[in-house]
Design goal:
This protein is an alpha/beta fold and about 200 residues long. The chain has five helices and six strands. Helix content is about 55%, strand content about 20%. The relative contact order is 0.20.
């Protein structure tokens, strides 16, 4: 049991480090978009020429059903893009594991340091637990999303926000609401703090 905990913790730390180092700009942009929005919208991203991603932000109105969708009229060959997208998901997971592994290793060094302040050691233990818990929830939600029929997804939990990247060529209003509900129920993150980014 302890070996499994440490392995999970190491994987979690590696994943967080991956996100911080490799995908920091995309995650921060998505999280900032959620904080600034009060409705579900899907926006066109034009930060990379030739690649148009969509960002979905949940609705905070009492009805909770409004989703605004923009479709891309200049689609590239879907098969080529889907293969390209698969590489993104593999790289993202590897980087997430590496990042979280680094965070857990740092926390472990603090915990094992006999000269460290007891309060600092306690905070490091809490951080290791939070990282491990977040990784477990992320993997669980990714599996649930695949079970719903999507080819692939990656989930990033940070504090009270969840960022979900879905491998899908189309995302309907119904899809956005289903994914938001699934993530919210599985992670206890408020629906208004869930960001969905379709990547195709």
């Amino acid at each position: 049991m302890p070996k499994r905990f440490w392995l999970l913790g190491l994987m979690t730390l590696a994943g967080v480090a991956l996100l911080v180092v490799g995908w920091q700009g995309d995650v921060e942009r998505a999280i900032n978009a959620v904080k600034q929005s009060n409705s579900v919208t899907i926006e066109q991203r034009e930060d990379q020429p030739g690649k148009n991603d969509l960002i979905v932000k949940p609705d905070t109105t009492p009805s909770g059903n409004a989703v605004e969708v923009q479709q891309d009229s200049n689609r590239e060959d879907v098969d080529d893009v889907m293969q390209e997208g698969s590489g993104f998901f593999v790289e993202y997971r590897l980087e997430r594991e590496r990042s979280r592994g680094q965070q857990i290793e740092i926390a472990r060094e603090i915990i094992n340091n006999a000269n460290a302040d007891p309060e600092v050691r306690k905070k490091a233990q809490e951080q290791m637990y939070q990282i491990s818990n977040a990784l477990q929830k992320e993997l669980e939600v990714e599996s649930l999303i695949r079970a719903k029929g999507y080819k692939d997804s990656v989930v990033f939990l940070e504090g009270n926000t969840a960022t979900v990247v879905i491998q899908a060529k189309d995302l309907t209003q119904e899809d956005a609401m289903k994914i938001t509900d699934l993530v919210s129920r599985s992670t206890q993150v408020s629906a208004q703090n869930v960001v969905i980014i379709p990547k195709y």
